């Protein structure tokens, strides 16, 4: 019995990467993805980039993330989650202590979505890498993120390119970096 328990523990340490990018997955497919890839396979990395997942599908993912202890990397780039999807992910980040990488490139989250993600980062988030390129977050969205960077010490990479960030946003980031040592900010 002890040997079986040890074997089970060793298997849980093996990274499981699931690549489902550009498969035309929709919100209707998300429950199956959650059941098979996250709950059954206990994947550590899930790539859902380039599909047709909206805030509805992300809501299901976010609910699982709140208690999930295996998924470390989640790629959701080029879907259509919008600011509502970002809100659900932000709520999950407040609770989840396992997710280290979140890629939301090109999801139209705007400043409102950045605010919700920032609220998630202000808690006990384990997130190291956050990619928010091409999301039109603007100066207001950067202001929310910069405010959180004053206290967040886990985030090491923040990608903000192509987000209509002006001088005010750049100043907010510069001010935040006086109190934080995020080594990689791209904007």
Automatic annotation (TrEMBL):
PANTHER family: RAN GTPASE-ACTIVATING PROTEIN 1. GO terms for biological process: nucleocytoplasmic transport. One of its GO terms (molecular function) is GTPase activator activity. It comes from the Eukaryota. One of its GO terms (cellular component) is perinuclear region of cytoplasm. This is Uncharacterized protein. SMART domains: LRR_RI. Keywords: GTPase activation, Leucine-rich repeat, Repeat. InterPro entries: Leu-rich_rpt (IPR001611), LRR_dom_sf (IPR032675), RanGap (IPR027038).
